[in-house]
Structures are given as structure tokens and as C-alpha cells.
Amino acid sequence: MKTAGIDGCKAGWILITFDENPEYRILENNDDFKDALLEFDRVFIDMPIGLEDEVYTRECDRKLREKLGAEYASSVFSPPIRPALHAPSYVEANMQSYDYTEKKLTVQAWNITPKIRILDQILSEHEDLRESVLESHPELIFMNLNGGMIYQKKNTKKGLRHRLSLIVNHEEIADDFFRDIKEEYRRNQVEEDDIVDSMALALASKHSVEKGIKTIPNDPPVDSKGLKKAIHFV
Question: What's the pTM?
Fold first, then answer.
């Protein structure tokens, strides 16, 4: 089984695989992104998939915040509701969100809405991908790798290096990948935390083949388009 982890970055998407032939790729356009999703048998991706129609916060996000704890809950944000997904501007998306939920869409959520939109489109056009492209969350993966605790925030040097070391404990090549990607791409293309996050997703995707997959919540619902509203982890 071919496995990979994908995280969004300013250049597009960063893909890592720790399979028999480990590699990294920067997917700079939607066609490359779609081709990658079709190429791999299992992809863990840090991007919302199933969306609410009229409720501001998905159950999976609420439960993930509780699991991560108050200090790290801010790493989990509520994606746009489906009626606001195709709004042409932040102002209109905000109005849609407030009309249905009485809460405004965060700027953070709006900034990744184009990526949510293209992923949603691909999963709508290729229903077979719904079982292979799975939403996950790097901080949950790091928590589990670290024995149920998170060691400092990843926007600190110490927190970032600790997260990288957790990956290197399982995949030594991760150290080389981190250095090579930093040298090959500028910070305005790929941030350091994008690299370690995609590595965490790749590691969890690989481990899931033998260890199986768990979800938050345990019995996840689907949205109005049949997409699962769940966070997947090992």
C-alpha cells in the first residue's frame, strides 16, 4: 500500500512519503494535487473534509480541542459551513456563516477555504477517494508520539525541533528531508512547521497500515455530500 501525508503550504501543498522509496514533493497546482491523491492508496491530510451545513463547529473539532487541552485548542479551528464554501469574498462568507450560525468565519478559516474547496471538489468527482484520503491533525499525531503529551508549541524553535526528533525516532531520513526542503524552498513557499506537519501525517499514514485507524468521534457522521466528518489517527 502506498501511503503519504499532505499539508497545505504557501506554494500549494507539501507531500511526504516514508514508504520503500521515501520522497518529498511540492504540489504547486491543482492538477498535481489531484494526481497525487489518485496515486496513493492512503493519504492523511491536514485539511477539513466533511462540512456542516448550519452548525458552526463540527463534533470532531470540538472533541479534538478537548483532547489537546486548552493550551493547544487554538490549533483546531472551525472550517466554513458548506453554504459559505463558494462565497466570492470573505465579507460574503462571513455573512453566510452568521446567517446560519450567528457566528463569524475566522480569517484563518477563510485563508484556507480555497484549499478546502478544491479538496471538496476532487472528493465529489472521485468518490473512490473518500476511503483513501483521510482528514487528520498533526498535533494529535505528535501528542500520541510523545506518550500523550505535547512538548511546547511548534512556533518555538524548541517545540519545532522536538517534533522533528519524534519523527526522526521512526524515520531517520526525516532529518535530511527537513534540511533539504529548507534549502530548496524559501520560507514564503514552505514554512518549517509545514515540513514537520507533513512528516507527522506521512508517518501516521504509514503506521496505519499495520496498526489500523481510529477516529474522532468513534462513529463519525457524514455531511450532506456524504463526506465523513472525522479526524483520523493511529
Answer: 0.96
